[in-house]
Amino acid sequence: MTEQVITRWKAEGRGKGRGPNYKPWLEVFDFSSMGRVERTGSTRFGRTIHLMSDVERDTFYALEWSSRVTDVMEEYPLEREYTLEIADALNIQHPYYPGTNVPTVMTVDFLVGVSDGGDAVRFEAIDCKITEEAEDPRSIEKLQIARTYLAGMDIPHRLVYSSSLPKQKIRNIEWMRGGLIKSGEEERYPGYLREKAQIMAHELAHSTRNMPLNAYCANFEIRHSMSAGEGLRLAKVLMYERTLRCDLNNPDLPHAPLATFRCTTPHAAQAAGGM
């Protein structure tokens, strides 16, 4: 890392923008040697999200699911001029890029826009750590710098540890979002999956069937001349959109009986939120 690279990244707009136009300061391509980085498309936020660890990935799934979250900016940079001043004031060594005398552009893992239901949006910063980092002195020092910086901007700073995440809920969210239409994916005809999903929602809202979800989906496929697996995919979409309400703690949603689900109207589904 050099000052020239940092200047170029700033010129590229890294760490700038909002919503679909946000560009993270760090991208997975900058860490080709790391095995746990990941890019995931987000239909909700309209762009590709860059995630640097498993705990960041799981935290993002939870943030994307929450209807209170209006925007997610990952790998958000802090101004070096101020982090250097803060480190000096706290008598903490500022981080440098390995093998250089270039001060690191510090980042928080997520800067999150949060709404409480009105028009106002407030921001929260989140850093994600594995549990073992909780007592690492150097990690704590760097978090002190970031927390002091953010306090000066009146932005709360939260830590999320891997052990504190609701793993079963997040695995179910990940499973459901796997049914969403991917960017560039071709359907049988435009709006095909959306049309079938609406039919399924209507059926489930008025259904008296008592069978496992996957059995109902297989039956739906036969009755509507769909390919194998497409019925369960529609159910995933309806669950992700909260049209089909489910118990996120259930470790086996495909085999859950229909009686454990509740189908709501699209308007009611959009109003519902949280984990």
Describe this structure in words.
The protein is α+β, with helices and mostly antiparallel strands and 275 residues long. It folds into two domains: 3-165, Trna Endonuclease, Chain: A, domain 1; 182-271, Orthogonal Bundle (Arc Repressor Mutant, subunit A). 37% of the residues lie in helices and 17% in strands. It is built from nine helices and eight strands. It has helices spanning 3-11, 54-65, 80-90, 137-152, 167-177, 192-205, 213-223, 230-240, 266-271, and strands spanning 38-42, 47-51, 69-77, 107-115, 121-129, 157-161, 244-245, 262-263. The strands form three sheets. The chain has a four-stranded mixed sheet. The longest helix is centred in the middle third of the chain and has 16 residues, at 137-152. The protein is elongated, with a radius of gyration of 22 Å.
How many E-type strands?
8
Estimate nothing, just give the exact number of structural domains: 2
What is CATH's topology name of the largest domain? Answer: Trna Endonuclease, Chain: A, domain 1
CATH hierarchy: architecture of the largest domain: 3-Layer(aba) Sandwich
Q: The biggest beta sheet, please?
A: 4 strands, mixed
Q: Which runs of at least 5 residues are low in confidence (pLDDT < 50)?
A: 267-272
What's the pLDDT, averaged over the residues? 91
CATH domain class of the largest domain = Alpha Beta
| Proportion of residues in extended strands | 15-25%
Structural class: alpha+beta
Helix content range: 25-40%
**Oligomeric status of the shown chains?**
single chain
Terminal Cα separation, in Å?
39 Å
Order of helices and strands: HEEHEHEEHEHHHHEEH
